[in-house]
Amino acid sequence: MVLALLGALLVGTVSAQIYIPPVFGKDSLDTRPDELSRLYIPPKRIMWVSHDSLVQNKEVLLLSGNGQPELGKRNMCSMYTCGRDTASILLDYGRELHGGLKLVLGAARPWGTQLVRVRFGESVSEACSEHDGGRRRKGYSTNDHAMRDITMKVPSDGQIEIGNTGFRFVRIDLLGSDAVIRLKEAPAVMRYRNIPYLGSFRCSDPRLNDIWMTGAYTVHLNMQEYLWDGIKRDRVVWLGDMHPEVSTIMAVFGYNEVVDKSIDLACEQFPLPQWLNGMSAYSMWYLIIQYEWYMHNGNLDYLRKHRDYITGLIDCIDSCVDEEGNESLAKSRFLDWPSTPNEAGVEAGYRALLCWALDDGAKLCDLLGEKGHAAKCNAIAGRLKKQIKQPNRLKQAAALMAVAGLMEPERACDEIISVGGAKDFSTFYGYYMLQALAKAGEYQQALDIIRQYWGGMLDLGATTFWEDFNLDWSRNAARLDDFVPEGKDDIHGDFGDYCYPGFRHSFCHGWASGPTPWMTRHVLGIEVLDAGCKMIRVNPHLGDLEWAEGTYPTPLGVIYVKHVKKDGGNVVSTVKAPDGIKVVSK
């Protein structure tokens, strides 16, 4: 799959000054300009119509329009209902988008408003599914978080915009009887943050190129006013889920205010002594994100703004860990959804995550001059390490233990993570499994798993990465971008579990973007050694690749690297870095 990703449309622009009409006065109205941009994107193909006699001249909808209604019926798609025969059309916009639908209409018969049903879908099946009435049943869709099944009136000789959700497909049904509407245009309205892709990745394997860009695009769609978890469902700030997204933002976009805003909002919504999002593990992720975000951007003022929250959180954790290493942060432990049945493994991984967070917490406190709290972090971690739990064959737990230094990476991979290859990987914690493989020197295996697991979603028609994916689902599954043949499984409607059964399953979830920062870090070999990217190590690991090149955004400018494997396996590297950045190797 070739991902153009809107090509030249996704380029940076200089922010224009916002002018407020003088009739409002300077102080009479609180205003908030829209931070995001909009694109009107015509459908790429007509997937299906109920009957050619009921939907005529449909091809005009594939053309770019001007958004202006016109009198008459020239160059318009006509939709008819006759008795019980309903006019329906299914449109494919080519890839996952965030936003809604604009209908530009001509004259209706009878003249006036007409009733239509509009269904948005991340898959063909979802766009054609029935609403579940709030019961969350497999095979049925929901309106949770965002309306995707809407019945409403549309005007004659006018235009209307409908919906705000994540989708690729739209089905339009003309309801009522003996009615006609004429559609001049039906573009998707894409709402997105207009920022350039400063980071890039290309290599000798097009599949890996597609995976890198799909992860980047997945996160870009979730960079709305705040950094969301998903664009169809989970349109809120989940601090823990942000970590892979922030890692991707650093590799692709560099600094962006959406991260600061989202961290700030989460802390406002969950003041201490509450855990962020009501989940103790997500407060651990807060410390990890803060440290990595600081190392990339070097913004000490932002850390100082969070000084009291950081030290207060460390005090909360300290009060919950006794001298023997028993901890009582919260009754509920959460890593990710697929790991939840393995309670012993989750417990081991949870404690490892806490040790990782405390290590980063100590570094944050050193930066802030809070030596007492830095020592407190180290002391808590020392108590926790008196009781190192076993991962109980859980890949998520073994990965965290390897990253946190509680388990030799080689052992974690040989005994658990590498067993079965991509089997039991998850979209969220797969990132940390890949990190553990890198720590063990298993770069080739990591690349193979990326191709199989994340590439497996692409093979099923994905243009963004999903909330969850299990390779077993794909054994007899049809692609998401076509109707499901008899005897095949519906990859969207038939699977999913926990909070995401069936069509509630999000097909654009930022936490699934891990391969993007992983390939930047380990294939391109770019590692930040000093705050603000003032010192960078470049140490590539090409595995079976013949070459790789790319860019990495820093506060001082964009770094370019290229690595070419020569005869005998030696790699020759070219590195171009802006002034002010020191580059070291190995």
Automatic annotation (TrEMBL):
Domain Alpha-L-rhamnosidase six-hairpin glycosidase: 198-390
Domain Alpha-L-rhamnosidase C-terminal: 525-580
GO biological process: one example: carbohydrate metabolic process
One matching Pfam family: Bac_rhamnosid_C
InterPro entries, alphabetized: 6-hairpin_glycosidase_sf, 6hp_glycosidase-like_sf, Bac_rhamnosid6H, Bac_rhamnosid_C
Span of the signal peptide: none
Protein name: Uncharacterized protein
